[in-house]
Design brief:
mainly alpha, about 0% strand
């Protein structure tokens, strides 16, 4: 069985990769389909690059947390020893408020980008005609 186009082939290979990464077996795909070797290699490489990007982000976040967390705990302990627990709580509240404001800004930015992308999509353009 041959797939009609490269996109369908890529989807089939991606599903097979997902099956294998979930502990399954990719044999059904290879027994049913003859695929162009370069197409399979391209899809696998894309999948690997995606995993590498996710790993780099995870490592970066972990490194930042490893630096920030001990310092945070150190300052919290110092404030506690000095009897300034209420001051520490106030600092945390201020940071929380700033974080909530920043989160709203990020969310609004994301929604704006999504709306722009959707409005420029061919499907929407066809509907509007």
């Amino acid at each position: 069985m041959y797939f009609k186009d490269q996109q369908t082939t890529e989807r089939a290979v991606e599903e097979s990769i997902k099956q294998v990464s979930d502990g399954g077996d990719a044999a059904p795909l290879t027994s049913k389909v003859e695929l162009a070797e370069d197409t399979v290699v391209d899809v696998i490489n894309k999948h690997r690059m995606g995993l590498k990007k996710k790993l780099r982000k995870l490592v970066a976040v972990t490194k930042r947390k490893a630096v920030v967390e001990p310092k945070y705990e150190e300052w919290k302990e110092i404030f506690g020893k000095c009897g300034e627990d209420m001051e520490w709580e106030e600092i945390e509240k201020e940071a929380d408020v700033e974080l909530r404001i920043l989160w709203r800004q990020v969310t609004n930015f994301f929604k704006t980008k999504v709306i722009k992308a959707v409005e420029s999509h061919d499907v929407i353009k066809d509907i509007q005609r």
